[in-house]
Every structure is written in C-alpha cells, then in structure tokens.
Amino acid sequence: MSRNELVVLGLLNQKPMHGYQLHQEIERTKMEIWAEVNLSSIYNTLNRLEQSKMVKARKERPGRMPERSVYRITKDGKDKLAGLLEQVLSDNRIRPADLMLGIFFIKGMPKRKALDCLGSKVEVMQRLLHGLMQAEKDAGDHAPFPWAFFMRGTIDHLKAGITRINDLTKYIQRMRSWK
After folding, report:
1. Pairwise CA distance, residues 126 & 128, whole Å
2. Structural domain that includes position 31
3. Hey, how many other C-beta atoms are within 10 angstroms of the C-beta on 26?
4. Domain edge (last residue) among 59, 90, 121
5. In Å, how far are 7, 129, 152 from 142, measured between CA atoms?
6. Do 58 and 137 have their domain in common?
7. How far apart are CA 109 and CA 83, in angstroms?
8. What is the pTM of this model?
9. 119-175: per-residue pLDDT in tens?
10. According to DSSP H, which parts of the chain are helical?
11. Which of 18, 26, 122, 173 is deepest in the core (most CB within 10 A)?
C-alpha cells in the first residue's frame, strides 16, 4: 500500500486540487510527519494515478498565472481509495500512521464498511491489549525497567486508542449525511 496514493486520493476525494494545493494541504496537516508521507514524491504519485486513470487532470489558467493541471478523483480512484482504506483499517497489525490515515480519510468508503473495519480494528487492539496485560501481570515486580515502562505505555496507548475508536464509531453511527 502506498501512503502517498492514499493521501492524494483522499485529498482529491474532498475536492479537486492542483499539485501545489495538495502539497500545501499535506504541509498544513503535517502529514509528512504523522502519516510518514513522502512529500517530495507527490507529483510522481499524481502522474502514476493519472496514468492508471485514478485521477483526471484538467488544464486551467487562473488570470495571468501560468497554466496548471487541476486533478479530480475518478470513479476508479474512488474505488481504489475505498480499497486502500479497507486495507489499512482491517489490517491485523497496529500501524499508527496507517490507522491515522484510515481514520483521516474514512469518509472515502461506505459507512457500513467503515463501521465494520473500525469494529474489527477494536477487536485486534483488544486482543493485543489482553495479551500485554497478561504478560505484564505474569512478569509482576520482576520485569526489568525498560520492558515494564514500555509495556505500561503501550497498554495505556491501546486503551486510549480503543476508547477513541469506540467514540468515533458512535459518532459515525449518528451521522445522517453519510450513507
């Protein structure tokens, strides 16, 4: 899965943009940091997506400015976006950058599928949480400092993540504007 493809398709699913607008939006949201997006290859990603008919470019010349290409997502691109979102949200591994991207662009997939994927992700996180809590309990006071510190932080992080995903799920369930 290409994070750059997910980001470009996700942003274009929100509205048509030219390459520099995409670049600005990625910078504004700091995606190059939290989503580990390779900002320098956005234009290459746009070219690949255009060649594979996931996006379509339209030339425009605003005022006296140079001509530029404005990209919009196609039906194939929307299908690809939904597939990428399902992939990252259904992954049985906990990959924070992918999970955050999946949630950031979650409206790029059907509501029912999004809810199913979030439910599956919570189940994965709960299984991991249970295993870590058992390992922490089994180790008791004999766990070495770095390991115990890491385990406690990971357990706390998973609990918070589960709570946030459950809150998001409830919010999505109440949304009437998303089908």
Report:
1. 5
2. 3-90
3. 21
4. 90
5. 44, 20, 14
6. no
7. 8
8. 0.86
9. 999 999 999 999 999 998 888 888 787 888 888 899 999 999 999 999 999 999 999
10. 3-14, 19-28, 31-34, 42-51, 75-90, 96-104, 111-139, 145-174
11. 26
